[in-house]
C-alpha cells in the first residue's frame, strides 16, 4: 500500500508539472489566462463604474398650461433621475432636441390633464425615451413613476388603507454596475479557463499530440491520477485568479460585500473545481485551435443570460432552464449575487453548492471517459502486437481491467 501511494504521488507530481509547462509555454493560453482573466474583470469594473445617471436632461411639453401641469414638472425636475432642461411647445421641437442629443427623454402632458384630475378621471402622461442606453429608459420610467405615485397620494381625498414605503436595501440607486458586474465577474472565470484549456487541446491535436498521453511510468494505467494531475495545475492557477476576481476587483470598483471572505472561498472551491472538469469534458471535442474564438463569440452571451441576472429564472422556458444546468456559472453566479449582494448566508446558497457538487462528480467521470476514448487507438495498436495472450485471460477480466484504470 505504501508503495502504491508513493507511486501515485510521484505520477501525480509528474503530470502536474508537465501540464504547468504546457500552460506557460503557450503564449495564447497565457494571454487568455492572465491578461484576459486579470484585466477583463477590472476593465469591466472601470467601464461600468458609474452605474447610475443622475439629472438626465429631458424636454417637457405642457399642453395643459395648468397649475397641476406646472407642479408635475416641478416635481420631475426635483427627482434625482431627471432634470427638466427644455420646455417645448410642440412634439416636433422636442424630437429635434432628442435627435441632436441635447435631451434623452420627452414628457408630454396632454391638454386635458388638469380637467381629468378635477373630475376624478384617469389622466395620462406620455413619455418617450432615448433607447440608445438602458439607463436613459430606466431613469425616465423611474422618475415619472415616482412623481405620479406622489401626486396620486396627495390628490386622493380618501385616507389610504395601506401606507406604502419604497425600500431597496441591496441596490438603492438601481446601479447598473451592481446589477451587471456581479454576474460578469464569475463568468470570466469559467470562460477564460474553458477557452485556454480548449486552445491547448486544439494545439496538441494539430501537432499530432494528445491531451491524454499518460506518463511512461503509468504503463497505460492511471486515468484518474492523470485527470487529477492536469486539473490541479488549472485549479491552483484559477483559485488565485478567482480570489482576485471575486474579492479584490469588487473592492477596487466599490461593489458591496455582504458576506464573509470565508464564504466566498468556499464558493470558489466548488466553482473552480466544477469549471476545471467542465472544461476538460468539453475541450475534448475541440480539434483546432481557432475553434476557441468561434466558441467565445457564441457562448459568452448565452452563459451570461442563462444565469438569470437579467431575466427572471421562473420565466425561463423549460428547455433553456435545462440547458443552463450544463454550465457551472449558472449556479455560481446565482449564489454569488445572493451572498455578496443580498447578504445571504452560505447555507442559503446550499442548493447552488449542491448543484455544483453534482456537476463536479458528473464532469469528473466524463473527463475520465474522454481520456479513455482518446487512448483507444493506441490501446488497439498495442493489443494488435500481442500474440493472443488476451484470449487466454478471458473477456471478463479484460473488461474489468479497462474500467479499473479510472481509479488507479
Automatic annotation (TrEMBL):
Subcellular location: Cell membrane
Record Gene3D superfamilies: abc type-2 transporter like domain (3.40.1710.10)
Domain of life from the UniProt record: Bacteria
One term under GO cellular component: plasma membrane
Membrane topology: Multi-pass membrane protein
InterPro entries with a match to the protein in the record: ABC-2_transporter_component, ABC2_TM
Pfam families on file: ABC2_membrane_3 (PF12698)
Single annotated GO MF: ABC-type transporter activity
Keyword set, alphabetical order: Cell membrane, Membrane, Transmembrane, Transmembrane helix
The ABC-2 type transporter transmembrane domain, residue ranges: 30-367
Transmembrane segments: 23-47, 174-197, 233-255, 261-280, 292-311, 353-373
UniProt name for this protein: ABC transporter permease
Source organism per UniProt: Candidatus Cryptobacteroides gallistercoris
Source lineage: Bacteria, Pseudomonadati, Bacteroidota, Bacteroidia, Bacteroidales
Amino acid at each position: 500500500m505504501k508503495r502504491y501511494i508513493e507511486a501515485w504521488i510521484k505520477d501525480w507530481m509528474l503530470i502536474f508539472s508537465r501540464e504547468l509547462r504546457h500552460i506557460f509555454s503557450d503564449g495564447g493560453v497565457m494571454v487568455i489566462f492572465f491578461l484576459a482573466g486579470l484585466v477583463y474583470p477590472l476593465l469591466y469594473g472601470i467601464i461600468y463604474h458609474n452605474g447610475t445617471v443622475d439629472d438626465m436632461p429631458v424636454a417637457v411639453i405642457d399642453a395643459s398650461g395648468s397649475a397641476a401641469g406646472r407642479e408635475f414638472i416641478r416635481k420631475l425636475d426635483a427627482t434625482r433621475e431627471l432634470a427638466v432642461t427644455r420646455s417645448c411647445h410642440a412634439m416636433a421641437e422636442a424630437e429635434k432636441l432628442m435627435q441632436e442629443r441635447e435631451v434623452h427623454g420627452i414628457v408630454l402632458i396632454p391638454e386635458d390633464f388638469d380637467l381629468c384630475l378635477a373630475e376624478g378621471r384617469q389622466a395620462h402622461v406620455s413619455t418617450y425615451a432615448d433607447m440608445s442606453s438602458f439607463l436613459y429608459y430606466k431613469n425616465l420610467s423611474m422618475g415619472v413613476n415616482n412623481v405620479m405615485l406622489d401626486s396620486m397620494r396627495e390628490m386622493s381625498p380618501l385616507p389610504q388603507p395601506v401606507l406604502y414605503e419604497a425600500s431597496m436595501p441591496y441596490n438603492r440607486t438601481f446601479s447598473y454596475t451592481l446589477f451587471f458586474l456581479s454576474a460578469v465577474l464569475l463568468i470570466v472565470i469559467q470562460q477564460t479557463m474553458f477557452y485556454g484549456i480548449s486552445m491547448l487541446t486544439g494545439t496538441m491535436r494539430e501537432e499530432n499530440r494528445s491531451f491524454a498521453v499518460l506518463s511512461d511510468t503509468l504503463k497505460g494505467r492511471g486515468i484518474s491520477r492523470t485527470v487529477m494531475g492536469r486539473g490541479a495545475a488549472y485549479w491552483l492557477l484559477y483559485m488565485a485568479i478567482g480570489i482576485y476576481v471575486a474579492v479584490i476587483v469588487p473592492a477596487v470598483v466599490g461593489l458591496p460585500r455582504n458576506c464573509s471572505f470565508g464564504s466566498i472561498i468556499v464558493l470558489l472551491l466548488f466553482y473552480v473545481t466544477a469549471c476545471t472538469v467542465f472544461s476538460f469534458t468539453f475541450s475534448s471535442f475541440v480539434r483546432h485551435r481557432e475553434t476557441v474564438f468561434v466558441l467565445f463569440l457564441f457562448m459568452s452571451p448565452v452563459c451570461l443570460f442563462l444565469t438569470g441576472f437579467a431575466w427572471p429564472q421562473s420565466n425561463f422556458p423549460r428547455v433553456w432552464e435545462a440547458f443552463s444546468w450544463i454550465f457551472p456559472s449558472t449556479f455560481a453566479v446565482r449564489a454569488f449575487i445572493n451572498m455578496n449582494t443580498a447578504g445571504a448566508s452560505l447555507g442559503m446558497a446550499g442548493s447552488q453548492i449542491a448543484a455544483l457538487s453534482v456537476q463536479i462528480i458528473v464532469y469528473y467521470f466524463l473527463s475520465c471517459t474522454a481520456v479513455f476514448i482518446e487512448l483507444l487507438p493506441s490501446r488497439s495498436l498495442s493489443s494488435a502486437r500481442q500474440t493472443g495472450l488476451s484470449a487466454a485471460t478471458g473477456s471478463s477480466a479484460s473488461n474489468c481491467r479497462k474500467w479499473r484504470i479510472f481509479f488507479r
